[in-house]
Amino acid sequence: MEGIGYKILGAVLTTILAFVVGMFYGGFSRKIIARIQNRVGPPVWQNFLDVLKLLFKKTSVRYGLMHHFAPLWMITMSITTLMFVPVLNDGLFFSNLNFSGDIIFLLYIMVFGSLGMALGAGSTGNPNSAIGVSRGLTQMVGFEIPWVMALVALMIQYKTTSVTGLMEVQSQSGTWLMFSSPFAFIAALLAMPGMFRYSPFDIVGAPAELASGPISEFGGKYLSTMMTSGSIFAFVKLTLYVDLFMGGASNLIVLVLKTFTLYMYPVLWGAVSARFRTEQSVRYFWGWPTFFGFIALIYAAF
Amino acid sequence: MYNDKESQKIVDIIQNYARKHSLFILAYGTGCGAIEIPPTMTSRYDAERFGIRGSATPRQADVLLITGYLATKSLKRVIKVYEQMQDPKYVIGFGSCTINGGMYWDSYNTINVLDKYLPVDVYINGCMPRPEAVIAGFVKLQKLIQQGKADGWDIYKKNIDEYKANQKKIITNWVMPDFNF
């Protein structure tokens, strides 16, 4: 009985932690982009104010059931994904649910949030949303291939299909997987900006050409829920990368340092680059990242 | 504690604080004043430090920025956009043309006083207003929101018949629903 209590407490704590950290990362990225553009920039807690304000807005739009469900679906999927990613190496509260096949499970469930968004955007009937959804799914086909290749290479090389198994491998051998299987790391790292949708790959929500794409009919509480879900999901992805390739983290300070360093890579790349077109984005992902994915598979098999 | 006036006051303070510091603007940039928006948002005058941020669609926006004169043809679109925005929403009239018609005061196809057709919360004077003036206008709007006085959306709802009558006087071929809420 005590174990269940700790698990529930841990789940709640992890969700709050992911929300707060993800929100602050968003704020820091806005500040850093502003400093790059020689501006002062908003305060780092600006995203909290945005979410709070959107939560207080009234809504008088009805587009049917899926329009209501899409933000809920997204936040549910974000939190579900969070539940399967161990936040710390051996924390009492942050261990969460793990089982022996959870990398395969994560590969599936990480797509579900975008799927919910696609369904919700489809039910609004806005043409911008439809274009945004088709672009998003095309881009997902692009970056999922090197990402899946990297993970399959890891699973073959270390003969385990669980995140905790890979973390144990790292803690036993003492080297991070980014050094002991470098090609998988390179493939996963090159595929990463596509997941975060910062600038060269922000073709889904392109505000100037698509009027923010799939979310163009979502305002107020819907948008607030989506922003919350997005910041939780950013934390999940970063934590997963740290768990898989950078040896996990033994305490929260190390986790924040590692995830923030990793987060700066798509943000800084985005701050200095213009937007790709859809086919350019897919061509990028099917170029060098997929090549390194192949190398990683060959490296893992032999 | 439940729904009494004191707790409502606290909720109002929190609400107004959040609304004040996070303004998503939708610039209706058909007038010449739209040329002053990019300098206001970018490096030199940086409106983002006040929490002001551009938004792409009316559904997400809080502030409708009418930059300059409005032709009778575009008034229809502005009304549509304004009614698509979600409450609470604010309108900023930008430049002399929205106040009294400015240099287009005797033109046959522009409106003169914007306030007859949409509830304007803040006017920014000038032809055209400099980015400093724009930021001053936004700060004024923030003060009004903090005091709870920026209630143009409420006034619009209460006097909807009057506003609709005024709008229909200008727009002769009204081929859209009466309300776009």
Features:
heterodimer; A: 302 residues; mainly alpha; 13 helices; globular; B: 181 residues; 5-stranded parallel β-sheet
Would you give an account of this structure?
The complex is a heterodimer of chains A (302) and B (181). In chain A, 73% of the residues lie in helices and 0% in strands. Chain A is built from 13 helices and no strands. By secondary structure, chain B is α/β, with parallel strands linked by helices. Chain B has a single domain (16-170), classed as 3-Layer(aba) Sandwich (Rossmann fold), CATH 3.40.50.12280. Chain B has helices spanning 5-20, 37-41, 72-84, 96-100, 131-147, 152-158, 160-170; strands at residues 23-28, 52-54, 63-67, 90-94, 122-124. In chain B, strands 2-1-3-4-5 form a 5-stranded parallel β-sheet. Chain B is globular and about 55 Å long. The A-B interface holds A 30, 34, 37-43, 46, 49-50, 52-54, 56-61, 128, 207-208, 210-212, 215-220, 223 and B 14-15, 17-19, 21-22, 42-43, 46, 48-49, 51, 53-57, 59-62, 86-88, 181.
Strand arrangement within the widest β-sheet of chain B reads 2-1-3-4-5
Mean pLDDT of chain A: 87
Tally of extended strands of chain B?
A: 5
Instruction: Please estimate the helix content of chain B.
Output: 40-55%
Average residue-wise pLDDT of chain B: 87
Task: Please describe the biggest sheet of chain B, giving its number of strands, its sense, and whether it closes into a barrel.
Answer: 5 strands, parallel
Largest sheet of chain A: none
SSE pattern of chain B: HEHEEHEHEHHH
In a nutshell, what does this entry contain?
Chain A has 302 residues and is mainly alpha-helical. Chain A has helices spanning 2-36, 46-55, 65-83, 102-124, 127-158, 163-173, 177-180, 182-196, 207-210, 221-245, 252-271, 278-285, 288-301.
